[in-house]
Every structure is written in C-alpha cells, then in structure tokens.
Amino acid sequence: MVHRHFWLKLIEQAWKERSVAWLSGVRRVGKTCLCQDLPSVEYCECELPRVRRTMLDPQGFLDGLPGKRIVPDEIHRLQNPSELLKIAADRYPRTRIVATGSSTLGASCETTISVFYGSTSC
Q1: pTM score
Q2: Which residues contact 68 (CB under 8 A, 6 or more apart)?
Q3: Distance CA 99, CA 74 (A)
Q4: What are phi and psi of 25, to 5 degrees?
Q5: How wide is the angle at C-alpha 70 spanned by C-alphas 66 and 73, nearest 5°?
Q6: pLDDT for 17-58, tens place per residue?
Q7: Domain-embedded: residue 1
Q8: Which of 13, 55, 99, 111 is 20 to 30 Å from 7 by CA-CA measure?
C-alpha cells in the first residue's frame, strides 16, 4: 500500500477545524485506499447492504460510535446520506467523519478535500 502522508495530514487538519469533511476525486484515484490508511477509524463500506442497514437510523448508528473517527465510503449509496452528515455535525461534535462518494452530495459539506492524483491500487 502506498502511504499518502500529504493527504492524510490534510484530512487530520480538516478534522481539527470541522467535524465533517468530504473527500472528493475522480473514480479510481485512491480515495478508498487513503481512507483505509487513516489510523483508528471505523470504516463503513456503504456499497454493502448490511452496512447500509446499520446506518438507516443515523442517530442510533452515531450513538454506537461516540467520539469515534468514521469513514462512510461511497456514502451516496445510503438512503439519506445528508441526514447522517447533518446529524453528526449538529449533534455529535466530538465524532469525526470523512465521507466519500457523489460529488453533488459533497458540495454541501463543511470541508471538501479534493484528490486529483493517485494510483489505481492500494
């Protein structure tokens, strides 16, 4: 796995300023690998039906991860992704989230980090 220290530092800095960050970039640029390289995160692969079911109740989901660092990868696959992000930002200020997925959803997030270069493999 290639460790992208520059991008990891950007995410850490974004988390110091805001509780919710958005990681954007074209397909296959390495957003998922980057997020999996973050230390001490709860990685949630939202493309998996079982994972999506656990996130149907955003408040219940966040109650189970108080103060954690959460990566909902491909968050646009959730039924109501903006609800999860809004509840997290408003009600769980100690919880940190970096979400990846559709760029149209990311436009409404507090902090956006754009990945332009990367490799197609972890």
Answers
A1: 0.82
A2: 41, 42, 95, 96
A3: 7
A4: 165, 160
A5: 150
A6: 999 999 887 777 788 888 899 999 999 999 999 999 999 999
A7: no
A8: 55
